[in-house]
Amino acid sequence: MFGGVIGQEVVKACTGKFHPLHQWFYFDSVESLPKAEKLTVDELAPEGSRYDAQIACFGKTLQREMETRKVFLVGAGALGCEFLKNFALMGLACSSDGSVTVTDDDVIEKSNLSRQFLFRDWNIGHAKSTCATAAAKAINSNLNALPLQNRVSPDTEDVFDDGFWQGLDVVVNALDNVNARLYVDSRCVYFGKPLLESGTLGTKCNTQMVIPHVTENYGASRDPPEKSAPMCTLHSFPHNIDHCLTWARSEFEGLFEKSPGEANAYLAKPAEYAEAARRAGDASARENLEKVAECLLKERCATYEECVAWARVRFQEAFHDKIAQLTFTFPEDAVTSTGSPFWSAPKRFPKVVDFSSSDGAHLALTRALANLKAEVHGVERPEWAADDAKLAAAVDAVEVPVFEPKAGVKIETDPKATEAASSAGGMDDEAVIEDLLLKLEAVRGGFSAEYRLGAVTFEKDDDSNFHMDAIAGLSNMRARNYAIPEVDKLKAKFIAGRIIPAIATTTAMATGLVCLELYKVFNGAPIEAYRNTFANLALPLFAMAEPIAPKKFEFKDMSWTLWDRWVLKGDFTVKELLDWFEAKGLAAYSVSCGQSLIYNTIFPKHKERMDKKVSELVQTVAKLEIPEAKKHFDIVVACEDDEGEDVDVPLVSIEFR
């Protein structure tokens, strides 16, 4: 923890950036220590091990407990590496009885090496969890770590099953997105496991302790959603480079990943794809088919020269023709319905970009687009593709259609719109779908059964794959259209690659703070001993507070929180379930499983279900599949009291096996 703080102060002294500490910084974590009466002379006496310094503070008993704990570390990136290093040094799970399961489905990229210090150059391309655990074992060979490459989500509940969660002592999150955090939080609440949460953003960090029956859970409070630029701003009215880069990333994915992926879905199962498109018969199905047709009919390339021609035409359409249409539809002196200038701030009036093979940026973008198009269609890239003069000659030989603006073209200007405006008003989607399917069927016979396009997945860290060349080029050409300052490839990578700013100092401080809380978990500390932290090393600011207790519900002589589950043992019928609640003074009027209603008093037919087993109904009505190894299922019961007021009761689990 102090390493992170002091490291940032050194950086401040060397760079003059951010505000230094104002003379003094005092920090203690006395709350992490066991109760004084437990710390006898014998308890603190050294034993000649690598843990003697820690034993001198916390005692041998806690040391032995830590060595036998079963820990689940979710994530092996910047935070995960620091946690594993700390676990190895603390002796956590460093015995045959203890274990730390580490899972991360990501592989190591070059950009990770600046802050994920368990990785080296030769680890690039390998699984993070495997490399991180190997490095941690080099620090302490007794660390009993199991690396996995599974994403923790509903899709992997066969891997991280009930038995796995029930066997854990503590869960430590080292994640980089809210959805994954919320899922892990829900599992910890369900199984009653402590969760130690943390996150960083540049010089800022936060930590949150989630302790069963003691604190509120992570999902109890939410940050406001991040604001995103309106669709019309990205498509027609950008006014900063972020808008241009977001548009460029979207264009890249549409051209080289989503459209080829859609074409591959058609090629894999053409009959099923066609049937599904006909059955849908809507604009979405038509648009997907148009993507397939573009890849396999209109824009299919068999030679590199054709890829160059495609790239040249694409440039013309994006940076000349569409801009010409936009300024034709909304001239510079256009006004709104209220008489105000249409092109008022923050809108910028655009100008077309005329292609020139003598402009290095134009040629570089054309090369990147042509190379990616060649990759999609499996076209070999000739040696002359890297020669500027020969590429320029090939580009200049391309005949580009002369564009004439059209009247009546609708361009979306509503910031609240979520879809691009279509100029094809009144289009018969079903007729277009049928026409496209016939055309595709006619050319499909010319492909082998194994023929597939090479869908390109964006990878920001490979400088030889032309991905960032394409995105930086697309965004800068769009910036030229709107007189927005251009950016270099590094800045483009930062924004388009959606890189979350992370530095080693903040990561070290955050993980240090969490590990201080780990001692409290193992000590069974009360809520007033725990600390949630928000810190900003740039200011610097350190704000610590006790966690909030969970919301408590009370009814008669009963009380419960989100952490509670009512477990009913036995294969209950619906009537027996209702009687169980009635005995508690509650009238259960609705029973549901997932999205399905198992029983509700307002439906007369549901009375026929009174003598049926709830376990049978969840499988026949809710279509719930219960694995043989699973002994229970969960239902939600809605209840009211004697006065007809709703009572929020805990989740109900029925152990029917």
Automatic annotation (TrEMBL):
Record field: catalytic activity: ATP + ubiquitin + [E1 ubiquitin-activating enzyme]-L-cysteine = AMP + diphosphate + S-ubiquitinyl-[E1 ubiquitin-activating enzyme]-L-cysteine
Name of a matching Pfam family: ThiF
Single Gene Ontology BP annotation: DNA damage response
Keywords recorded for this protein, A-Z: ATP-binding, Ligase, Nucleotide-binding, Ubl conjugation pathway
Enzyme class name: ligase
Active site, renumbered: C232
Ranges of residues in domain Ubiquitin-activating enzyme E1 C-terminal: 530-652
Molecular function GO terms recorded: ATP binding; ubiquitin activating enzyme activity
Top-level division of the source organism's lineage: Eukaryota
Name of this protein: E1 ubiquitin-activating enzyme
Lineage: Eukaryota, Viridiplantae, Chlorophyta, Mamiellophyceae, Mamiellales
